[in-house]
Design a protein that fits this description.
alpha/beta; TIM Barrel; eight-stranded parallel sheet; two-stranded antiparallel ribbon; 43% helix
Length: 298
Amino acid sequence: MKKIKKSLIERLESEILICDGAMGTMLSNLGLPVGVSPEKWGIDNEDKLRSIHEGYIQAGADIILTDTFGGNRFKLAKFGLENEVESINLAAAKLAVSSAGDDVYVAGDIGPSGEFMEPLGLVTESEMRDVFVQQATALVDGGVDFIIIETMMDLNEIKTAIKAAKKTGLTVIASMSFNTDKNGFRTMMGVSPADAASGMLEAGADVIGANCGNVEIKHMPELISEMKEAGAKYIIVEPNAGIPQIVDEKTVFAQTPEDMSAGVSEVIKAGANIIGGCCGTTPEHIKAIAEKVIEATK
């Protein structure tokens, strides 16, 4: 009989949990060709995708994300896969669940739609909501424990996604992507951490935070404090392995596991409840982060 996992929020009351690291760069390292859907390729290369999940679990991840970041109808349509939303998300969720076992959580991963909502674009709020409901429903059917919405830049879009995901009845994590500029931290659409926090919480997110962007782990404590001041109780951070650099026409994330994990204790002091990694991070990065979390919370 399958073991019933303790609720995520209950765990966060007394623990700091480890999330996994990058999916896209890991898939690329395993042979994902340019111009191919990462979600479809992952399903078609099940052993390789499973090896990524298992690598993060062995590194100490308490949470793994499904390979469904671009699994919404708008994104999949760019690959001619708009009619495979349900099957792709369902298969990716089932694969992650079967890799996770009884003790590791599986978060159904939802990324940006790739389109703009009115008035900036042509997509209505209703259409956007339906796109996210479709994806979230398929992920739930695949057995995920909760939903994570990440790397969002538009506050209206993430609020729409949160409301759509909340219809599933599951816990929802929501994360926006920030850069640094003369005004401090802002998303590409100009959203501040305080406004992001207020908007995500208002929409119903249970855990909020930041991932990706050019905010390295050493800057996360300041960003966390701004979200805390805006009312956030539970915070997730998933920084990249440093600022992306172009080397020999390839994007490289140069921060080593040791360099990245050096910032963990300050992130914990600032109030992070879930710590993971985004672009460029590997199981080695997550292992180093997990070890620092254990060390800091003894």
